[in-house]
Amino acid sequence: MTRHVARILVSGQRRRLEDEWNRVHAERPMTAGAVALDVGSPEYEQLKTLYHRLARDAPIEWHETIDVEYEPDELAAHAIVTLWISATAGPGNNTLHPAYANARRCPQCGVETYRYQRAPLHLDPARIDEVDIAETDHGEVVVSPRARDVFERNGVESVTYEPIVWAAPPPSPRTMHQLVVVPRLGPLAASFPLVKEHRCPVCGEYRTVGIAAATFGPARQLRFPRSSYHGEGLAITRERFGSGRKRHLIVASGRLYCALRDAGIIGFWAEPAHLLEDDVPARE
Ligand SMILES: [Zn+2]
């Protein structure tokens, strides 16, 4: 049994909406415009209706991201799972301080290609969610000492923990590391519905790399030829996903996922991934 959880944020002049919602739904209060509700639940429909009614008179905006929550046992049964990082760590890359040399952005399509990181990331602590694992808007992953401890106790190899420099004083003492995962997994199996669109005539990269499958369900779960996996605790996909700005996805062993769950590590949701015996790698 899986749940689809909508993480909703209402911005703009939301005071009235928040008041009306909280008066009726004290058990599921909206705080600072944010509330998480099961997709398709009566509460979800009620909030949407309330929003549409009030949006006629006030400038308010609805944003939502949807996480899938699988039963922990269902995930634990898989050799590998995809870790979708849902927490945000604010602007990364060279935004607050130069961290990368050879930053190359194709003038034609805007795709950013591989760069060499020569200095620590500078991040704004106020923009990092209060979680153990979060991702910048450029796909850099940051982890708490708690998460690092779980990785180390579970023998995660071929990763490094790089220092982060705070671009402003943190509100309270806080340490995070940039997690750099070296092992690559893939390419994805040929049966995976990978979409590559708009190849750029200048740099040869695809502007968009995505998944041609409904947001939920097995069709979009990552799958790899079994021969491409060597038991790594953490690995990144060979493919980079996104449009313009691209990032690798992170895959964890089922065993490591269980350890993260048992330690209460938060900031991501997990989805089953698969190792196939008799599928061939996708053509490049
Ligand atoms: Zn290009």
Could you provide a short overview of the structure?
The protein has helices at residues 15-24, 42-55, 72-76, 145-153, 254-262, and strands spanning 3-12, 34-38, 60-69, 80-85, 100-101, 116-117, 121-123, 133-135, 141-143, 159-166, 177-181, 184-185, 194-199, 206-211, 223-225, 234-243, 245-253, 268-276. It is of the alpha+beta class. The chain is globular, with a radius of gyration of 20 Å.
What does this 3D model show about the protein?
With 284 residues, this protein is of the alpha+beta class. It folds into 2 domains: 67 residues, Alpha-Beta Plaits (2-Layer Sandwich), CATH 3.30.70; 213 residues, no CATH class. It has 5 helices and 18 strands. The strands form 4 sheets. Strands 4, 12, 13, 14, 15, 16, 17 and 18 form an 8-stranded mixed β-sheet that branches. A hairpin with a 5-residue loop joins β8 and β9. The longest helix has 14 residues. The two termini are 35 Å apart. The model has no long low-confidence stretch (mean pLDDT 90). The structure holds zinc ion. The site of zinc ion has 8 residues, from loops.
How much of the sequence lies in strands comes to 35-45%
Number of H- or I-type helical stretches: 5
| Nearest-integer average pLDDT | 90
Shape: globular
Bound ligands: zinc ion
User: How many beta-strand segments?
Assistant: 18
Rg estimate, integer Å: 20 Å
Tell me the distance between the termini.
35 Å
Counting helices, strands and paired strands, the structural category is alpha+beta
In total, how many domains does the architecture comprise? Answer: 2
Low-pLDDT parts are none
Q: Helix and strand succession?
A: EHEHEHEEEEEEHEEEEEEEEHE
The helix content is: 10-25%
Query: Mind summarizing the main beta sheet?
Result: 8 strands, mixed
